[in-house]
């Protein structure tokens, strides 16, 4: 731990929280992908496949909730900058005992979009949770992390 | 799986998403507690203890972000009802390799507040992630689940 | 026009806009239904049936957008009261040259929910417009009106 | 209908809704004008002229509601991009049996602003509806469409 | 200073911020009035009277901004509860060198509405500031305080 | 008062409010600093120093509320443009009978950020007010003004 001083970029010299100044940083094309999973009972997944997937509203609702939340990341995460997203996509893979969630955000901006991708994943996951909670009290949202990040 | 029909309460007979009608339900005092954890490198936790905890802004920022997000749950989770929260509290326990997060929401309403507690935990966790991501690229938010729910 | 004075309930004696005071009104179960239609080219409707309806995301997106907007009616319409919606549902009927949209809102409150139903219809209609505008520059949203209102 | 595949730009290959990636598009000066009308009883328009127009708050309220809503278009229409509006203006023409509404949005961005103009028109129209609904139960909002669009 | 312990009701025993639990408090009819003033150059007030007051849009815009902000107080002030406002009114008195602003909020709720009245006054004042800042760089918003509070 | 016509830039020729068109203005690095003060009883300040400052949550909450509100200035002040803030910082100085508040906003945009700085100061001040109002009914928020503005 040789250089702890610059470590917490959101704290000023007195320890106060601040938004990092990105005024000097160049606008670059940036992408970030985040992933997570909602672990369910197998019976819940069977119901999801039987009742909800033919029509699509359950996954569509979760996808849209994730997209909408990503666009409001700077309202939710206090020290995030407002960013104009070029795109945001949310995808699901339904496994026997869980739903895998991933989200990819792209922007042309002075700072990265991993928080946007993470917000999309978590809100999409919680929206699934909300729609399936009547049949499954055991669900756990986990493994939420950034899986890729690029800057060109 | 004897009664699959009522299972997905947010889907109507055609499979379309809908907000569940709670008009006939009584107003009751309801509470819900959710928990989760942000797993970090031990060095990150040491930095958190050394730099951020004496002053308090890091955990304070995460706590407030969770509280504010909980109050906007119905804007984030499409089929949630708007609820007047009587209170919402967010707490942290800093362990050697993770920060444990919990949130308890209370309301006097026609429907429960587990989604409010879950939103508080995830947004508090992501706010911590945001403030520590400059020093730790390995963090994972997980174990997000409801730990208690009451109705009186 | 014998009694013009009480006519514009949102204007005070000086002509200034104000939120009508509902403090003295009883809480009642209230419902309102609004309707509207998005008139399209027949080719657009054929594409909608062929590409989008099997999967459902187009109508699901419009439905959710309407539901979410209805919950924020008091942020959009300046003199509307914030109301706790018991439920809000948005439905579509796809005709040869148009999509019919209807929305029904329910609340237990001191004032009615026709604005919530109208907001749901218009935002659902504009969301359809947004998703179909790449193929049809002629669409018109119209016939937006309240079709039913009850108070018990 | 020779090339239906690219038609619905907001659907991916599996039919899932997505925000169109505009990362490769150039920033251009873009404008869009939308129009609509709120059809009323003639007596309502007479009241509007007599009571509300001298002071101006009714049209001012509708204008501001339209402007504010236009700035939040990406929160209301799920697949819209957040755009920095250079300007947004909302105008009214009061006719014997209706109020004509128009809105013009301008931006320097990678994608167009017709949705911003449409949102301004509809929310301005519904705000008028809200303020006049106590005296007229027959109003209909209609003819909402894009009337001009430019890109330089 | 004999009893400092209960003083800061928004801090728990460890000093962490929390929303005060109002679950046990009775619903009561509550009102609060706040006031403030925007001090300007006399020439600015003369312009306001000459150009803006005949038409009314300047004060109307400030009034509506105050009303809208008051409805979102719990989004702006982190530890405020969401309250269903029965009414909110904003008034102005134009003096030779300042504009006096007052706002009265009413609710039937478990906690008071002074923050709603204060938010209405400040945002109304800043909206005036925004519209007059091109002609006056010396304006000061001040004397913002609660002037009356009732509970029945 | 030789040239009153261009004075009120937010009014068009008919007196209607409008967002000023900034489409032709260059993107420049702009900063603005605003200040204000919350005048309290001395006993309140002593309590603040004794109870709240060691832990930091009170000032942290006010600081974050100011930062979050600044990012939403265009939602609160009707004719403000949405701006991508490069940074926003809020600082406090605790005096014997008041808390001094200042905020500095930076952007690279076509228009200035004094409204963002003013919104940060007022919402930070009202958040302090909210947390201290249980012990002090005499507080006044005042002296809110722009103290510096630059454009490069």
Description of the molecule:
6 copies of one chain form a homohexamer. The first copy, chain A, is α+β, with helices and mostly antiparallel strands and 152 residues long. Chain A has a single domain, classed as Alpha-Beta Plaits (2-Layer Sandwich). Helices cover 32% and strands 30% of the residues of chain A. In chain A, strand 2 and strand 3 form a beta hairpin. The longest helix of chain A has 19 residues. Chain A starts with 27 loop residues before the first strand and ends with a strand. The model of chain A has no long low-confidence stretch (mean pLDDT 90). Chains in contact: A-B, A-C, A-D, A-F, B-C, B-E, B-F, C-D, C-E, D-E, D-F, E-F. At the A-D interface, helix 2, strand 2 and strand 3 of A face loops of D.
Distance between the termini of chain A: 30 Å
SSE order of chain A: EHHHEEHE
Q: If classified by CATH, what would the architecture of chain A be?
A: 2-Layer Sandwich
Strand content of chain A: 25-35%
Uncertain ranges of chain A: none
- Give the name of the CATH superfamily of chain A: Molybdopterin cofactor biosynthesis C (MoaC) domain
How many extended strands of chain A? 4
CATH class of chain A: Alpha Beta
Q: What helical percentage do the residues of chain A reach?
A: 25-40%
Helix/strand/pairing category of chain A: alpha+beta
Q: Could you tell me the mean pLDDT of chain A? A: 90
Radius of gyration of chain A: 18 Å
């Amino acid at each position: 731990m040789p250089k702890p001083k610059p470590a917490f970029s959101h704290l000023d010299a007195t320890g106060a929280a601040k938004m990092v100044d990105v005024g000097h940083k160049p606008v670059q094309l940036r992408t970030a992908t985040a992933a997570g999973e909602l672990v369910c009972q197998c019976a819940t997944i069977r119901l999801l496949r039987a009742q909800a997937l033919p029509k699509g509203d359950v996954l569509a609702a979760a996808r849209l909730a994730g997209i909408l939340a990503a666009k409001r990341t700077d309202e939710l995460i206090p020290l995030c900058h407002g960013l104009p997203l070029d795109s945001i996509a949310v995808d699901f893979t339904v496994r026997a005992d869980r739903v895998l969630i991933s989200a990819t955000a792209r922007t042309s901006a002075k700072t990265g979009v991993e928080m946007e991708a993470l917000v999309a994943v978590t809100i999409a996951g919680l929206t699934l949770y909300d729609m399936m909670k009547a049949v499954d009290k055991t669900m756990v949202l986990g493994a939420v992390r950034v899986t890729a990040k690029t800057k060109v």
